[in-house]
Design goal:
This protein is an alpha/beta fold. It has one domain: P-loop containing nucleotide triphosphate hydrolases (Rossmann fold, 3-Layer(aba) Sandwich), CATH 3.40.50. About 35% of the residues lie in helices and about 30% in strands. The strands form two sheets. It has a six-stranded mixed β-sheet, with helices on both faces. The protein has a four-stranded antiparallel β-sheet with strand order 2-1-4-5, with helices on one face. α4 packs parallel to α7 and α7 packs parallel to α8. The longest helix has 14 residues.
């Protein structure tokens, strides 16, 4: 692990344990280089925000952590992603099983066209849960601060919920299988301010039991919720603009005393 990035954890009062480590030499869409030279530890039970201008590879890197990019034709990662020290890109690793432990919440709420109850129960059944599904459905909805709003509507189609409720349902669905890591790709971009605040509160409550990585263009949101922040920018490589990691530190440092002028300019809104 690169000691330059380990220095970013100095001063934390807690015992910091990296749960994930990205060592991405390059990531390609076909012949197009998208990411270059990313070395990044993700620390357990913290919220890490990825910020940077559009097209700098934030969402691409996020999808590397549970191999969702495998579902896109002609993609290739040169390097490794370690989860508890195991390279998840090793040929013998099971990507479907991996997504049981590292789940994804997308930019737009995507509930299944099923009942509210079955949205939560579906993943439990797929993974062969043998316990009390009713109890886990309730527990997951309570964790997502949604139970009181839907407890008398569990048989209703999930598509009847409001946008904010749908997103909290998707988070409840993700946490029902008890993942270790939740990936969130712009989870509040389609929501109103009240619903966004509810999602932010939910993230803070969830980090006691899991690690969260969030991609966001909302600087205020990243500053509010994230313990660590990684700033990415675009650089010219192989004749194309390619995403690279500029700096990674405590959010309090990134948003008040960034080391790089380009980070300061981005946070101040000079570009993006």
């Amino acid at each position: 692990m690169n000691p330059d990035y380990l220095q970013a954890t100095e001063g934390f009062s807690e015992n910091i344990e990296p749960i994930l480590y990205a060592n991405v030499k390059a990531f390609y869409y076909g012949n197009d280089l998208a990411l270059h030279n990313i070395q990044l530890p993700i620390y357990k039970n913290y919220i890490t925000a990825f910020i940077g201008p559009s097209g700098c590879g934030k969402s691409t890197l996020l999808r590397c952590f549970n191999r969702l990019n495998d579902l896109i034709d002609n993609t290739h990662l040169d390097g490794e992603i370690l989860f508890h020290g195991r390279n998840i890109y090793h040929p013998q690793e099971d990507a479907i099983l991996l997504r049981r432990y590292i789940t994804m919440v997308f930019q737009r709420p995507n509930p299944f066209p099923k009942s509210i109850y079955n949205n939560i129960a579906f993943g439990l059944r797929v993974h062969g849960h043998k316990g009390n599904i009713d109890a886990l459905v309730e527990h997951s909805l309570r964790q997502a601060f949604l139970w009181e709003e839907v407890k008398n509507r569990l048989k209703d189609n999930a598509l009847s919920l409001s946008g904010g409720q749908k997103q909290r349902l998707c988070i409840a669905r993700a946490i029902a299988v008890q993942p270790e890591v939740i990936l969130m790709d712009e989870p509040c971009s389609a929501l109103d301010p009240i619903s966004s605040n509810q999602i932010e509160d939910l993230m803070q409550s969830l980090k006691a039991n899991c690690t969260i990585i969030i991609v966001t263009h909302n600087m205020q949101q990243a500053a509010r919720v994230a313990d660590m922040t990684a700033f990415f920018n675009l650089e010219m490589k192989e004749g194309s603009r390619v995403g690279e990691l500029v700096e990674y530190d405590h959010s309090s440092v990134i948003f008040t005393h960034p080391k790089h002028q380009v980070t300061k300019q981005y946070i101040q809104g000079s570009f993006g």
